Amino acid sequence: MEGTVNLQLSAKNVGIFEAFYNSVKPIQLVSCTLDVASPGKIPAGKTEIPFEFPLTPRPNRTLYETYHGVFVNIQYLLRCEMKRNFLAKDLLKVAEFIVEYKASSYEKAVPHPVNFSITPESLHNVKDKGRIPRFLVTGHLDSTMCCVTKPFTGELIVEHCEVPIKSVELQLVRVETCGCAEGYARDATEIQNIQIGEGNVPCGMAIPIYMIFPRLFTCPTLSTSNFKVEFEVNIVVIFQDDHLITENFPVVLTRY
């Protein structure tokens, strides 16, 4: 049985920090080997061999939840190997098992409701705000601190807009940071994108926001000395001419 954190640098960061090459080595969280059957013959038919591992971390390590990301991967594997004589190949099978936090040991989600109002003036990273059509989008998120097993909810209202709207979308983003004291590489990548409004949605109508967090691609927000896994939600409004506006909301995920 082994559990590891595999860190990877994105192409844009490779070569920037020499120190990264030490800090992105796989981090072994748990490792255990045992013999489950002594040498001999296995009889015909079905043979079940029970086994048991203590799921305890290595010294000075912590077990984290299973997580499949782009630059950070936390994975727990069982490897079963059957040694055979020199005339037959050894048999090997690998299976992943999922690790989740216990209810009692970690913080629970406390509701943090957020009201938002998106206007041309509220946008960041825009050079010429005069070219942006006049619009007002309001709404609320029920909480930016969320339990990963419950849906992300809220509502959005397009109050008015000068130009036709093509689509309203909800984007879930993972922000993965790898590094050490010498420097960090921070990369944001899309996990999923959900269309919550298609076409030129009517003004003044409440559009529900409802999103399920995908199991393997999200985990409770995590921050360690070598890596961080954080999450953000973007509300994206795409106009008919394919110009788009985005409002960003950092979210904190918890197990319970």
TrEMBL record:
It comes from the Eukaryota. One of its GO terms (biological process) is intracellular protein transport. InterPro entries: Arrestin-like_C, Vps26-related. Belongs to the VPS26 family. This is Down syndrome critical region protein 3-like protein. It comes from Cryptotermes secundus. The lineage of its organism: Eukaryota, Metazoa, Ecdysozoa, Arthropoda, Hexapoda.
